[in-house]
Specification:
Elements: H1 7-13, H2 22-28, E1 36-37, H3 40-43, H4 48-63, H5 65-88, E2 95-98, H6 101-111, E3 119-123, H7 128-138, E4 145-149, H8 157-176, H9 182-187, E5 198-203, H10 215-225, E6 228-232, H11 245-248, E7 252-256, E8 268-271, H12 295-300, H13 308-322, H14 326-348, E9 365-369, H15 380-393, E10 396-397, E11 399-403, E12 406-412, H16 427-431, H17 442-456, H18 461-482
Helix pairs in contact: 1-4, 4-5, 4-13, 5-13, 6-7, 8-10, 17-18
The structure holds pyridoxal-5'-phosphate (PLP).
Protein name: PLP-dependent transferase
Keywords: Pyridoxal phosphate, Transferase
GO molecular function, one term: transferase activity
Amino acid sequence: MVQNPSPALQKWFSEDPPAFGRELREKLFYFDPEYIPLNHGSYGGTPKPVQEYFDEVDKRIEANTDLFMRIDLAPLLADVRERAANFLGIETDECYLVTNASLGLNTIMRNFVWNAEDVIVTTSVTYGSIQKTAEYIRDTPPNPKVSVMQLIFPTTHAEIIAKFRAHIECLVKARTSFAQNWGLRKKCNVKTAGKGKIVAIIDSIVSTPGMLMPWKEMVEICGEYGVWSVVDGAHSIGNEQGINLCEALPDFWVSNAHKWLTSKKSCAIMYVPQRNHHMFRTAIPTSSVYPSGSLKATYDWNGTIDWANYMAVNAALDMREWLGGEEKIWEYCHGLAVDGTRRLAEILGTQLLDKTENLEFTTMMCEVGLPISSSVPGTSEVDVAFKRKMLVERKAFISNYYHNGKFWARCSAQIYNDVGPYLPLPPPSILASLPLPGTSTDTEIRCRWKTLKKLDGSSSKFVRRLTRNSVARIRRERGRRRT
Ligand SMILES: Cc1ncc(COP(=O)(O)O)c(C=O)c1O
């Protein structure tokens, strides 16, 4: 049931919800009519009811700021935390709001008291800035170590679980018989290890490739070996089915509400179970109640922010119930991610990265190969050119990246998408005019002609021109190299 809708929300909820897809997009979102948004995973997208509720709260703050900050804020904040906690199966006192996943994860990692013997475990697909957070801690005295577990897709959940267990086991063994275990430490990619603690940063859903990890099993393994588990759940809430943190029992967990929960930027939900409150010495920034001994007091106020961002979580939860609830949203978006990306793979002549029979890695994001030759290196030049082409020229976006020697796209499916937009996606024609190094052989030219003809039917003048220009450029480059 929708709970006590404010006037801004009542206006919406007094009507029947729109059907998912185009109708919903037109009624509930602000998208430029020409834009094809297939990248909800990066920054989310705020629906009109949420934005209007946010505006309502913001105006209330400005109408009498002191009243809001000093009197009204505390019960409103408690209400949002309680609803978010219920959603995740945890206690309100275990649920806190921060501005984004980066801040939540940084706060957790910087609250550990580090020793030189400690090890932080990450993977080769840990989100860039979170990997850098681990490296920053490594580079700061007393310099704990970082051990990176290599993770290459395609793979299976079973393989990841086995690999993670072996990695942790190796670190634990190296820790207990440090002097004799140089071989083990080398295997775990750690130079030294003593009797220190091990803290594993585990993605629930990797950013790129956008794959659902067997994170609950990985958390369980951490429990078995006395390893701390810090779950980067940036993509989880609203995207992953049936999250129950009380059952999964990670040591810490953070998820962005502004991504898949369709709340307002900037808000993330941070789970700190009661058993770990003692570890949490400070918020970032430090609160005026330090040292308070109470996480609630710490997070009731730790610097002036726009609290309306946090309040908007209420509106997002209300709206999702109005639209039919989490199961209905999951069925639609997951189904669309699979169908849309499969059709895209057919058109592009490529494959999905999730090769498991039951698509165990696939949530509302699905990964498809881009038809770029493997002779093209995954440089930032190619990456930037692709992004620019997509956004500026074609008004469409999928998140592109390079993994395991190939180019891929992460396609997000949301309640405002339908399968239509997947089809005229522009990669084939875009590829023709990218500054792709390493494509100057006749075979490559023939390949690109053939691919482009097949994929675009060379029906549009635009595509033909791009193709001609591209091939001419390659020939020119080849000529230059000969002379
Ligand atoms: C896995 C993962 N972790 C952390 C982040 C950081 O999120 P934010 O930029 O909201 O702090 C992202 C962002 O996309 C992410 O994908």
